[in-house]
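Progress note, project year one: complex with thiamine diphosphate.
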Amino acid sequence: MPTLTKSNIDYDKRNLSDKTLLQLYYNMLKPRLIEEKMLILLRQGKISKWFSGIGQEAISVGVTMALKPSEYILPMHRNLGVFTTREIPLHRLFCQWQGKASGFTKGRDRSFHFGTQDYNIVGMISHLGPQLGVADGIALANLLKNNGQVAAVFTGEGGTSEGDFHEALNVASVWQLPVIFCIENNGYGLSTPTNEQYHCKHLADRGKGYGMESFILDGNNVIETYTKVKKLVESIRKRPRPILIEFKTFRRRGHEEASGTKYVPKELMDEWETKDPIENFRSYLFSKKILSPVIDEQYVSEIKAEIDTALESAYAEEDIIPNETIELNDVYKDFEYQDIKPSSKVKELRLVDAISESLKQSMNTHKDLVIMGQDVAEYGGVFKITEGFVEQFGKERVRNTPICESAIVEVAMGLSIVGMKAVVEMQFSDFVTSGFNPIVNYLAKSHYRWSQNADVVVRMPCGAGVAAGPFHSQTNEAWFTKTPGLKVVYPAFPFDAKGLLATAINDPNPVLFFEHKALYRSIRQDVPADYYTLPFGKASVLKEGNSVSVITYGAGVHWALETLDNNPDISADIIDLRTLQPLDKETIINSVKKTGRAIVLQEDSMFGGIASDISAMLVEECFEYLDAPVKRVASMETPIPFAVQLENQYLAKGKFESTLRDLLSF
Ligand SMILES: Cc1ncc(C[n+]2csc(CCOP(=O)(O)OP(=O)(O)O)c2C)c(N)n1
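Model obtained:
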């Protein structure tokens, strides 16, 4: 690196000690030297991809040094300095990038896509924005624990255009969460310049719109970055609130190395080169006689030796030997189901009451459980399931949310990272689309990626039969049953709902809990009064017969029961699946082996639904036992219509009896 004769950045060291100044310098030098080495390895074809943070080191280092090691930090792809400042052993970092076992993801994710509880770092997912809401969740946990800790989260200016950014800032402000949002405005998001990314003067100006203090800092000036952030963090620790900081900086290399920088005007590149955060700081430290060329040389050779040793050991580590069992075992966190038996004391409850009671009992069982959702507090939720909860558990644990499904799912993830539990109520399961990304990409994949479970239950009031039209009637379990990492529960009775919800909350994995709205107030049952659990992956056989197996769940269970009550000549097994993921394959297969005929009934439209998978499984597993083709009955391949006549035509219910008769006469 060239040594500048004079610094182009005005530094004001205030009362910082020489030791701190040298630490700031050393901590910037390390990621720079690692990067320079990586660029060589890239050219030699020894690594596949590299996202460079050259020129942006002052931000990573300044922010990380301003925090306590115990405080969570959520970096992006250009924040190598966060990882090195937290003193992650280079061997582990290099193994991570090479997909080796000593990395942080056992070869399952690349580059900076990992977190580590050992260093209180929560890495990004590719989608950029979701971690902003996760930082809110971590900050909420800190607030609820009253531990005086702050969380810091990074985004590029490109990421600020995502809905996640806006949702996260709004929630942080409404809840006054102790979190620092750090925007690294480096001029380009891939090839997109800032004037095609946003239309305000400064991104910091957005703070005002969210009712949040905001600041603009020179992201290349490490003293300014460190001292200002430190001051803000100290203030937030005493008076929790969110703060937005826009760091002005520049991306000096391509988005990733292969994509180049052709679209960046040369003058801009030259201008920012003169503002290099390390060269300028070195020159300043030389001029103040805080650093000497000899010590500087020592630093460089010490770091280079560390890099070389770690690289050697990373290359020497053997490649991962794939093992299917190991991979499959890590999709979910181990959960030892505790069977808590129901008491004999029962009372008649509707489905809606059973869910409410279960939730209430779990709130008593788990003091770290937080419920979040729109209108769930004083109003009690649109279905009144959390009515009276605020009075009993307080507003801290029963939280009304703004309308921002993504952020709330992300907050739930953040709570889980700090060891808490969350139940998120989707007002209607249809609205889960607005929180879909964090569920299928963040919650579902975290344990497999870096052993971080998502202890989250998403409650999903779903289903048709209530003449509510295309956006309040869907039963969208199939969107989730195909995503490894999620569990999907779909009870049809109050007794099952109560026990399964308790288990869902005990289970440390993400669970989608479907509650059929048409059953809420129409289905009653004697339900044990006390807390109890029911196991996942165990279907219930509601009726036993010999000529056909009816396999169904949710409202389909009641349609099947009604149909068979009206047709007493048909001798059928009725299997209520209760949970779809895990699926009780054994009960299904044993029944079909006995009856030789199978009909799978689902409320959702046909294509890509669970009925198709069960049907395929039966063909594979029971072919020689079958006396007829496996039949699927499902709703029409249209959106769900509003008018009751159209809805009735749409629903599978109307086709079930005739299809069953056809199957029996095959
Ligand atoms: C949801 C989503 N859309 C698009 C991309 C592809 N992508 C990855 S990084 C990037 C640019 C990000 O720009 P910015 O947030 O400014 O960060 P920078 O790379 O400049 O540090 C894009 C478009 C993505 N990863 N995720």
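The first strand starts at residue 73 and ends at 74.
The chain has a mean pLDDT of 97.
No further modelling is planned for this target in the current period.
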